[in-house]
Amino acid sequence: MTQRILCAALALCSAAPAEAADWWIVLQRDSGGNVHFAESGQLRRTGDLVIFWTHIFYRELTDGMKSARIQFEVNCATFEQRERRYLDYDANRNMIETGDNTDANGWREMAPDTAGAAYVRFACATPEQRHAQFNSIASNVDLFEVAEFYLDPRPIVVLPSN
After folding, report:
1. What CA–CA distance (Å, rounded) separates 41 from 126?
2. What is the pTM of this model?
3. Is residue 15 part of a domain?
4. Which CATH number do you get for residue 79?
5. What pLDDT does 68 receive?
6. Residue 61 is part of which domain span?
7. Mean pLDDT throughout 54-66?
8. 53: how many CB neighbours lie within 10 A of its CB?
């Protein structure tokens, strides 16, 4: 509830129905402090298989990479996922590398309480479930700016000490 109020106050989340939103916050901070988003506008489902794009923003630069846009395919029946394509970006939002793993098998079962499990839940959710479980990003808000907000390690509210 607090999260939804915060999003509304900061105009980060969309008040529109789930179908109108493209980007969603899948995981605000993983164990490394990274922020994970997924996109629903181009999500394609065929039976139990779903293909969709994600965007991960890393707290720390890794080999010059600050974020990565990754296309995943998930199997909702087996709770498995594999990476299909990726685009890596530097801190200045410049693409620094791309790759295509479409022909590689690479299916992995997702462990509970991981970013991968959150992606599978997102991809396999109905629009109603997605709207209830995840926060959407308003279409007029820059995804990179939203990520920077969540990557900021400072507390959102500073309480006075007693």
Report:
1. 13
2. 0.79
3. no
4. 2.40.128
5. 96
6. 20-151
7. 93
8. 21
